[in-house]
Amino acid sequence: MTTLSRIRIGSAPDSWGVWFPEDPGQVPWSRFLDEVADSGYEWIELGPYGYLPNDPAVLTAETQRRGLKVSAGTVFTGLHHGPSVWDKTWAHVADNAALAQAMGAEHLVVIPAFWRDDKTGEVLEDRALTPEQWHQLTSQTERLAYEVREQYGLRVVVHPHADTHIDDEQNVTRFLDATDSALVSLCLDTGHYAYCGGDSVKLIETYGERIGYLHLKQVDPAVLAEVRAQEMPFGPAVARGVMCEPPTGIPAIEPVLAAAQKLDVDLFAIVEQDMYPCPPDQPLPIARRTRSYLRSCGA
User: Which residues contact 81 (CB under 8 A, 6 or more apart)?
Assistant: First the structure.
């Protein structure tokens, strides 16, 4: 078995069914921290801003006593709307970036805005961007990445995501080809990319220098076929179980990790099994099994 010496494994609130800063159906943040540490993970993401304590002193004490460290924060953006949304976007980004920086993180995961509501399925805007919107998306993302780097010392990694404008191979490669590699890297989420028909190993082998971060996730092919046939929005698809426990789905994790290891750079690989909503006792056994499985892969 090859030891994946350049891969740093972690997990995230998402794997505990946490999608929102506050939701009475979600596990309390203290339980998440207890259980993610109990599962054998060392690294975590912050999740939705406001879920974990926003006070760096409090969060540092809570993570340190559990042996946990923070790899990244996460923000949602609608940068294809151009300069008109900059101030609102930056206010949101700055809060997240400041906390991530204070926690010693190196990355900020940036997710594009949804073109349809992930709960109701309401179509919010056209699923295809105009050439001008593409220009705004790429140029404003570069601006964001520059400001985040200069003011907070974090590297922006853009997360292709189902039901957004950066989703399948065509749109992901178009985005990468149009952005400055010195500023913008990719957070490759293996589950979302498979959900949208992409091949993660091919993307790593083709655009390796742009891969700055990984989310490890799998999709259930049978459920995905139903989702596609019914044109189901992402939220209901998750509730249906489209994202599944590895190694039961696609893509196979071992080839992805092997391809990432060949890049010969240090990469975070954060487990994210989308589960929302989910019973509070469901995540811990899955997290333990997943961590054991990744150890069997050398990670």
Answer: 133, 136
Print the SS3 string covering the chain: CCCCCCEEEEECHHHHCCCCCCCCCCCCHHHHHHHHHHCCCCEEECCCCCCCCCCHHHHHHHHHCCCCEEEEEEEEECHHHHHHHHHHHHHHHHHHHHHHHHCCCCEEEEEECECECCCCCCECCCCCCCHHHHHHHHHHHHHHHHHHHHHHCCEEEECCCCCECCCCHHHHHHHHHCCCCCCCEEEEEHHHHHHCCCCHHHHHHHCHHHEEEEEECEECHHHHHHHHHCCCCHHHHHHHCCEECCCCCECCHHHHHHHHHHCCCCEEEEECCCCCCCCCCCHHHHHHHHHHHHHHCCC
Taking the C-alpha atoms of residue 279 and residue 265, their distance in angstroms, rounded to an integer, is: 37
**pLDDT of 2 over the 70 cut:** no
Confidence of residue 119 (pLDDT cuts 50, 70, 90): confident
Average pLDDT over residues 60-82: 98
Cα dihedral: 190, 193, 194, 197 (round 10) = -160
Mean local confidence (pLDDT), 198-225: 98
Give residue 110's pLDDT: 98
* Residue 287 and residue 35 in contact, taking contact as beta carbons nearer than 8 Å: yes
Model confidence, pTM: 0.97
